[in-house]
Design brief:
Mean pLDDT: 94
Largest sheet: 6 strands, mixed
Bound molecules: adenosine-5'-diphosphate, magnesium ion
Helix content: 25-40%
Radius of gyration: 20 Å
Strand content: 15-25%
Low-confidence stretches: 316-322
Amino acid sequence: MLSEFDLIAQYFTRPARDTRRIALGVGDDCALIAPSPGTQLAVSTDMLVEGRHFFPDADPFQLGHKCLAVNLSDLAAMGARPLGFTLALALPDSRAEWLAPFSQGLLALADLHGCALIGGDTTKGPRNICITVFGEVAPGQALRRDRAQAGDDIWISGTLGEARLALAGYRNELALDAAALQAAGQRMHAPTPRVALGLALCGLAHAAIDISDGLVGDLGHVLKRSQVGATLDADALPIGPMLSLQPQDLRRRFALAGGDDYELCFTAPPSRRAEVLDAARAAGTAVTRVGRIDAAPGLRLVDGNGVPLRLQLSSFDHFASS
Ligand code: ADP
Ligand code: MG
């Protein structure tokens, strides 16, 4: 069995890369971060608990990727540039068969985003993975939830609903063929944080949130905080290729209230549509316009012809007022 310190040294300590931003990493009582002068520090924490957020037999490489991805997604939704992260780990044992692929999946995504592992805590216990990310953003540029304005377009990055489709497949709620389950499972296990898009939207979007609990619920947070309402076109929602093969009712449900999408939902004035599309192109992430922000509170769902829809969505009822 590895000691706690051997384990940290072996799997979670690497030579510093960006010594300009990370003045001191793993190994001391604290890490030292040097954000660019004049920027604000953006900080977010997300915890993944075995049995609740991931299956006990989850692939450790994918799990390493996912637990950092969901944290980077929060930085993306704020328009912040990643600097570094800490990792608090409770582990039942120190088996290399789990630790090696876990740290590889984690650090591969960290390298992709120039986001260094700068510290953490390690203890024995039921498997629990808690990451805190640190990023930087220019003052006044952060994409906050409370800045949506009546008349704004509502945009979504990428596609929605396939993580939920995979869950339905795993639970045998739906019969999916192996290829469909594999493709949808990829969306569930290996989400792509939209960091470049978040950065490109700074100074352009009014408000943003990342979709972790389903579009309707998460957009609801933006509406509430911004004291506005919205109309969403259910037929305009970007649907992934595997979900596109499913019946309309299921497509709509999974896209509106699926969860685990980790796409960005953001609002921007219609006068800036061309700039939004340019920003998305530059970031290499497709975006789709799916509705508009209204002055009247509540969330209205319509079809492509503007006809109101009445869908019973668990997270939807909570926010509907019309
Ligand atoms: P302390 O006694 O101050 O809590 P620890 O002995 O827990 O410090 O940790 C020693 C060093 O290793 C610290 O710099 C800490 O940030 C780092 N560390 C501990 N666990 C991890 C981990 N899972 N990943 C990265 N760094 C870690
Ligand atoms: Mg400690």
